[in-house]
Inverse folding.
């Protein structure tokens, strides 16, 4: 039975089962509430499945020679079924029907199977969700209907600690216990950080008489149920499970004994609530998210509407809104890819969504960076610099750099390649500063500014001042031996993105120090104690005008770095049209690719988007036309930048094509795209394409601009966002835009170079 994807208004489904493509739905249908995240692996076991569950912030390393990662938590979803004494598997017998569906509106995962073998015919319905209402709770339901001859069924279900992170076992065995004869508990501890976990599970079998017995094994604890089903008879198994850890911020006493007690009490309190009732309260919690700034798209392709719902669902499934000590991993909580680490993906691609729609969550994500200053100082010192040099990959905020040193094998030499990004991809520091500044511009949150934001901005500028190198031949400050956003260009000099953003960071802080001295003497005094602001400002001023900023060539092209434009070009046609990414590396190694004018993802163009006030439209157009044909888009971060920029440049058909490509990275038919986990940054990019690109919302040098530009396939777009503490709604149809907000001070924004005032409702002819 072949597998294909299908779509509804709020649903994404796989119809048909194919064991080759388990990873697709495991990732794209993953469940989560920001605290727990789980892949949507089948209940029964298959070779090749990834049965992963993660808890935010619980980083550990298996060995001192390995980097920290989110440990794969003992599994509660897995179940073994015996049908007339034989293991149930979809690889045997006949699959009459198979449909697996994620409902984005409720966060419910459903799998419906009709299966037959010999005289056995069963209809099996599996449901599960992670509660959006109750942080620690997971619930599952299995309904079996016998459509054939009488059958004997055995179900083994419980807690399986025999999972690992690609072979790395992060947990000790820990205590086990059975409470009241029905609540199973395992209490493992992580090997390095010594974090205590309490995993609990209980079961209820309905509609049949069954025998049950507990079974304890090495790193496993389960219940075995055995029963018979007559023809047309039905049975329902309900399961509730919970996870607690010793770093949870919602319990005062994190001792094993207390966590065990809290977990048992919670499960006992929930006994009176049915699966449906627990689902209903979780759905209501999701409803509150969907009601906040809903986006409505009228398009020739209904999947466009689904794409934004898909993006928002996953962003809220993975964001640890409960705890400022945690951030979003590059794969969220949907897979072991990138080990749960946080990158620049957050600030540049995902943070804007939260800044504009859930500023309270954005503040926590940025507070994580404030708490990470200690790790950033450590990295700067280790590299011989001053200030805060943010790690390329971050885990627990104080850990500092956690990028692995070695990666995949070189196709030519066969040797492991050194991962240089942790050493030389330094633009992350100005990316963090950019995210902070954008948040302040949008929210006006002065308390956060005074207490945390200004310190981050000053500390990052201090790093850049120490990172600059004086070139005597040109009498300018340069930045050598770096990697920009384009990770196909290693150890290059004067990457445009890096130099310009460092210059911006320094320039901004020069003005900020003046502002604080004049307007906020108390904040100035506190920061002065840490930084000696007068001396720092003098150093910044002495360097800022001498920073080398790559200028356009006679043809109007800003060089991506010192050597890019002198390299030969390479026809990328066959690589751009292929399924999947990294096809280039079937023919070349990284060293060879470094020698061509080939770009992995937006670099100069990203600079022009984020700092669009610095560049004229004509210059953007020339650089777009030059760099895009040389870009493989092998990173999921690339398409959104190109979509927004091409919309700005009037290339709406091309822009919409980029939008479609971005949407299909995870949602599309290609069944191998998402195996290591969801593409979190791309999901933030989908929201940006809709609101920033087609909705036209932009922050330009601290000022709000709204200039929509709908693709031809869209007849209507409505969205909303928060600005300066007020909620703004925008409706765009053919020929007009209507903006509304509730009572409050009038807000100003720019439209077509004019300053507009929004008091309550404003209609603008487009």
């Amino acid at each position: 039975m072949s597998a294909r994807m299908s779509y509804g208004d709020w649903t994404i489904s796989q119809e048909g089962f194919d064991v080759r493509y388990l990873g697709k739905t495991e990732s794209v249908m993953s469940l989560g509430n920001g605290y727990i995240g789980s892949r949507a692996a089948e209940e029964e076991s298959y070779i090749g499945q990834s049965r992963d569950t993660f808890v935010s912030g619980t980083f550990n390393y298996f060995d001192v020679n390995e980097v920290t990662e989110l440990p794969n938590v003992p599994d509660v979803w897995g179940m073994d079924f015996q049908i007339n004494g034989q293991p149930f598997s979809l690889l045997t017998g006949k699959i009459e029907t198979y449909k697996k569906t994620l409902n984005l509106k409720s966060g419910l995962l459903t799998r419906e199977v009709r299966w037959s073998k010999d005289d056995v015919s069963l209809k099996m319905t599996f449901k599960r969700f992670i509660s959006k209402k109750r942080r620690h709770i997971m619930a599952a339901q299995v309904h079996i209907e016998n459509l054939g001859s009488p059958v004997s069924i055995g179900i083994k279900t419980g807690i399986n600690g025999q999972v690992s992170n690609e072979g790395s076992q992060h947990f000790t065995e820990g205590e086990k216990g059975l409470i009241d004869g029905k609540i199973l508990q395992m209490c493992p501890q992580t090997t390095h950080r010594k974090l205590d976990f309490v995993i609990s599970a209980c079961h209820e079998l309905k509609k049949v008489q069954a025998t049950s017995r507990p079974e304890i094994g090495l790193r496993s604890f389960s219940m075995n149920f055995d029963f018979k089903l007559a023809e047309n008879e039905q049975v329902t198994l309900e399961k509730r499970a919970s996870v607690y850890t010793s770093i949870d911020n919602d319990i005062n006493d994190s001792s094993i004994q207390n966590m065990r007690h809290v977990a048992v009490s919670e499960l006992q309190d929930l006994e009176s609530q049915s699966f449906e009732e627990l689902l209903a309260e979780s759905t209501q919690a999701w409803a509150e998210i969907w009601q906040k700034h809903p986006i409505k798209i009228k398009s020739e392709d209904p999947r466009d509407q689904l794409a934004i719902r898909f993006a928002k669902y996953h962003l809220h499934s993975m964001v640890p809104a409960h705890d400022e000590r945690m951030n979003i991993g590059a794969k969220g909580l949907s897979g072991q890819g990138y080990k749960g680490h946080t990158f620049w993906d957050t600030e540049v691609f995902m943070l804007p969504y939260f800044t504009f729609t859930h500023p309270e969550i954005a503040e926590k994500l940025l507070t994580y960076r404030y708490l990470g200053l200690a790790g950033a100082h450590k990295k700067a010192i280790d590299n011989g610099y001053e200030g805060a040099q943010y790690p390329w990959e971050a885990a627990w905020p104080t850990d500092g750099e956690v990028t692995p040193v070695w990666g995949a094998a070189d196709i030519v030499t066969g040797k492991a390649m050194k991962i240089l990004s942790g050493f030389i991809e330094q633009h992350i520091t100005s990316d963090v500063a950019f995210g902070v500044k954008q948040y302040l511009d949008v929210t006006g949150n002065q308390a956060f500014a005074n207490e945390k934001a200004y310190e981050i901005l000053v500390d990052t500028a201090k790093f850049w001042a120490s990172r600059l190198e004086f070139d005597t031949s040109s009498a300018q400050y340069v930045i050598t031996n770096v990697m920009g956003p384009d990770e196909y260009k290693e150890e290059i000099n004067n990457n445009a993105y890096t130099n310009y953003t460092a210059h911006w960071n320094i320039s901004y802080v020069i003005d900020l120090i003046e502002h604080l001295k004049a307007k906020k003497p108390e904040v100035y005094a506190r920061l002065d104690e840490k930084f000696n602001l007068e001396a720092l400002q003098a150093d910044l001023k002495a360097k800022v005008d001498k920073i080398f900023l790559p200028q356009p060539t006679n043809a109007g092209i800003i060089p991506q770095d010192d050597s890019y434009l002198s390299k030969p070009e390479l026809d990328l046609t066959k690589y751009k049209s292929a399924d999947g990414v990294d096809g280039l590396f079937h023919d070349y190694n990284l060293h060879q690719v470094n020698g061509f004018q080939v770009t992995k993802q937006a670099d100069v163009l990203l600079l022009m988007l984020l700092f669009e006030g610095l560049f004229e439209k004509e210059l953007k157009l020339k650089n777009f036309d030059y760099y895009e044909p040389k870009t493989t888009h092998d990173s999921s971060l690339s398409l959104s930048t190109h979509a927004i920029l091409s919309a700005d440049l009037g290339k709406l058909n091309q822009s919409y094509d980029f939008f479609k490509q971005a949407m299909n990275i995870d949602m599309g038919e290609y069944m191998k795209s998402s195996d290591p986990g969801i593409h979190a940054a791309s999901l933030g990019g989908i929201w940006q394409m809709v609101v920033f690109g087609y909705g036209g919302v932009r922050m330009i040098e601290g000022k709000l601009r709204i200039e929509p530009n709908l693709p031809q396939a869209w007849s209507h777009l409505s969205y909303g966002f928060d600005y300066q503490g007020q909620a703004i709604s925008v409706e765009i149809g053919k020929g007009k835009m209507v903006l509304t907000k509730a009572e409050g001070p009038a807000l100003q924004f720019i439209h077509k170079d004019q300053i507009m005032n929004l008091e309550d409702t404003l209609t603008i002819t487009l």
Notes: The longest helix spans residues 496-519. The CA atoms of residues 583 and 728 lie 44 Å apart.
